[in-house]
Amino acid sequence: MKTVAVIFGGRSTEHDVSIITAIASIIKPLELTKQYKVEAVYIAKDGSWYWDDRLKEIELYQSGEIEDLMRRAPKVHLLFDNGLTLVKSSQFAGRKMYRKIDVVFPAMHGTHGEDGELMGLLEMANVPYVGCGVAASAVAMDKVLSRMTARGAGIRVPVWLALKSHLIGPSSVKKLSNELKYPLFVKPAHLGSSIGITKVDQEKELMNALEVAAHYDDVVIVEEAVPNLIEVTLPIMGNEEPIPAKLEQPLTKPEDFFDFDTKYLRGGKKGKSGSKAGAQGYSQIPAKLPKDLYKKAEETALNVYKALGCSGIARVDLLIDSKTKKVYFNEVNPLPGGLYAHNWRLAGVSNVDLVSRLIHYAEQRWLARQKIITSFNTSYLKQF
Amino acid sequence: MLRNYLSIYRPDFPKVVVYMLQATEYQIGPYLRWLWRTSDFSKVMHRKTLVMTKPAKLLLITLYIGILTQLSLATVLGIWGISEPVPGLPLVALILFFCAPVVWSHLIVLPLILGRMFIIRPSHAVQVRKSHKSFKEHKALKIAVAGSYGKTTLKEMLLTVLSEGKKVAATPANLNVPISHARFAKKLSGDEDVLILEYGEGAPGDIAKFAKVTKPDIGIITGLAPAHLDKYKTLQRAGEDIFSLAQYLNPSDVYVNSESEAAQPFVKKSFNTYDSKNAAGWAIGEIKVSLDGTSFEMKKGDKTLKAKSQLLGRHQVGPLGVVAALADRLGLGVQQIEAGISKIEPFEHRMQPRKTAGAWILDDTYNGNIDGMKAGLRLLQELPAKRKVYITPGLVDQGSESAKIHQELGEAIASAKPHVVVLMKHSVTPNIQKGLEANGYKGRLIIEDDPLDFYNNLDKFIAAGDLVMMQNDWPDQYE
Q1: Of the partner residues A32, A34, A345, the one whose CB lies closest to the CB of residue B463
Q2: Do the chains contact at B460 and A28, CB–CB below 8 Å?
Q3: How many CB pairs under 8 A join A and B?
Q4: Residue A250 to residue A267: CA distance in whole angstroms
Q5: Does residue A159 sit at the B interface (CB-CB below 8 Å)?
Q6: Residue B460 to residue A351, Cβ atoms within 8 A
Q7: How high is the ipTM of this complex?
Q8: Do residues B472 and B368 touch, judged by C-beta distance below 8 A?
Q9: pLDDT (mean) for A232-258
């Protein structure tokens, strides 16, 4: 039986979302396959790593008992032994517990996890891991780089400008107002889950929106709103031959947009607290689009996935102008919340099959990389 | 091992004992067998918990008082034995102290025995005697439904269809013992045209007793399969009991399911039979089965009946056919019969379809006999789906035939060719596996040792395009 380490939590604003993704959509389905031994590795908000079976229980976090566990439990050490081994001190006679990991399943959202940092660590350890690699994760999580990459591949993106947070001031507000057409969207350049995003209808609101975004990031992106907007998203999985799930359309009104509360706390519709909670109750799947437009959007998303070099799994968000039928790339989420299991289920892939396939893709990519020569013998040292 | 032993000293042990009694319907034999077999009492209430009914509360209080009294007595004796000192008394006190849960989990059956002997049985006997008179004097046509399986379904079918043109009363739900019939008789208004009575068999002589009390005019025998073999011992004896109903009727008033192989040795030529081709002289054809329901045509003489039912499966055609034939015999028009059949809704946990996230789930968890399981598997094979998943724990109460029946079940599963088979791990699992192997099953087999966890996470196993069939449930009291 292979051992899979699921790493979640982390120093990110999406820490709590990551816990839900890990426990509900990854750990439980992996255990249900009865093919993997699952090790839960939790990264606390202060960056400390813990490894314990109790970390698989959601009640631990809901009740606050996690604080108690973190006080008592030993922290985890990572051993790079041409692979990855988890090490922690046992509570008996100072002995150490070791667990060799066959595959890592990152369940991190946002900074220090989804943005390629964790993937770099796993590449160093030379262990197979699920999801996008270092470069794809870093580019995907950077709205500036991802747009530039997409545009380079001939994919349409909205009109946008980026600025460093220290440049925010009345003059930059003026400049943005002159160069872009309202309404605008102001976003932190590196955050997911719609955190820190504000819709701005007039110049007097822009300064405040820029400050909000700058609170979360040192780079802020300002873009023109796409008119006659239909917002859609497409989960995709696979390596060389990616497979799309179903195009999903959020059921928000055009004047609303998907912010964090809408996605994760209010169950979808802004202002309605009675609807189904979680990231599953707010969308139309498949999106009701004309056939040709659906196909066009699907192709655009697959092109983005390939252009950014994604592998394993990702979710591509698109903006559609329903009148002109123009499809714009919005952003890529290299680890969609809850793996978008609800969408995959409707596409004919159960949650259990989804995690199994993702493990397979991770191993497939790792095996391919092992064939690449990364070092060779030279006489350089002798000549020194 | 030690943990298991210590589980009898848990504060909730009395609750577990009462739960075991409740789950076994306060039957002393099954309760004691379960009690003696259990090693870890902390795991007994895993799937379900005690429902605080009045009898449960009374038994729980009795248990707590009994155990506490014994513990107090042991403590007093212990202190006395040490302080006086009385040789041997501390040891007696110690034994008395530690055996309290064991003693009281056995003593608790005493009030049940006494209550049953001196209160319940005499009271029930009086009520049943009174019902004898009610049934005898009632002018309605009385239809008795007997058989090892499918009684409640057939009774509900009859009730729905006959109600289109008659005033009908039927015994409620699956209540089919003499006292429930007596209570049913009490509630009758007297102006009913038809009474439908479900006869529950349990031990030799049961059906004859029912027939003597209720005086049926028509009898329907839904089938014969291994059930209650703890009392009947053999299928032959169960068949003799069920078919004793015919002795109280004219042969032309007896209707028997000819799709039940085991029932055939008991069928006389003069009986009416029904199956998916013929029902009491009506020819059946044009059967179409889908996830939306089942449709078929019936013809007799110049009469043609086009039935469209919400019920799923070819095996429903025979029972629906006999219901239609009986309705025709009782004077209902073709349109009334068709309307009645279309109104029959799938019964809870009996091939009940449900759609979740694009997947179809067929809940057949009340199916507890091999014929019914095979019928369900034929339906699974017949219906189209991207992926078919079959889930079962097996069958309980199959007596000495259990190994053979479960191997048969395994073979039937293999023949239906589901892509995935999930077996809830129980004592019969190896027999089902043997059957699967014998018929060369090539799909994915999952042996699940935590059924509750599996059912709670079923949504994680399924996806759009799946067809999932769940057959039978495995009560906690069985191994």
Answers
A1: A345
A2: yes
A3: 43
A4: 11
A5: no
A6: yes
A7: 0.78
A8: yes
A9: 84
Give the C-alpha separation, A226 to B83, whole Å: 92
What gap in Å lies between CA B430 and CA A86, rounded to an integer? 38
pLDDT tens digits along B370-395: 888 999 999 999 999 999 999 999 99
Range of the domain at A194: 159-225
Last residue of a domain, one of A131, A147, A174: A131
Give residue limits of the domains in chain B.
2-107, 134-343, 352-471
Averaged pLDDT, A30-46: 94
Distance separating alpha carbons of residues B359 and B303, to the nearest angstrom? 39
Q: Tell me the chain A residues in contact with residue B421 when contact means C-beta distances shorter than 8 Å.
A: none
Paired tokens of A221: 């992106």
B443-479: b (≥16 Cβ within 10 Å) or e: beebebeebeebeebbbbbbbbbbbbbbbbbbebbbe
Containing B223, the helix (H) or strand (E) segment is none
* Chain B residue closest in CA terms to A351: B460
Picking from B386, B457, B459, the nearest residue to A348 by CB comes out as: B386
Q: In terms of Cα–Cα distance, which of A33, A31, A81, A83 is closest to A57?
A: A31
* Domain covering B134-343 assigned CATH 3.40.1190.10 in the classification: yes
- Compute the distance between CA of residue B400 and CA of residue B403 in angstroms, rounded to an integer: 8
Superfamily grouping for domain B352-471: Mur ligase, C-terminal domain (3.90.190.20)
* 8 Å CB contact of B460 and A349: no
Give the model confidence (pLDDT) of B249-304 as tens digits: 999 999 999 999 999 999 999 999 999 999 999 999 999 999 889 999 999 999 99
Q: What is the Rg, in whole angstroms, of the alpha carbon atoms belonging to chain B?
A: 26
Give pTM, 2 decimals: 0.79
Q: Which residues of A are less than 8 Å from B386 in CB distance?
A: 348
**A 313-342: CB under 8 A from B:** 341-342
User: Chain B partners of A338 at a C-beta cutoff of 8 Å?
Assistant: none
pLDDT of residue B397: 74
Contact A342 B357 (CB under 8 A): yes
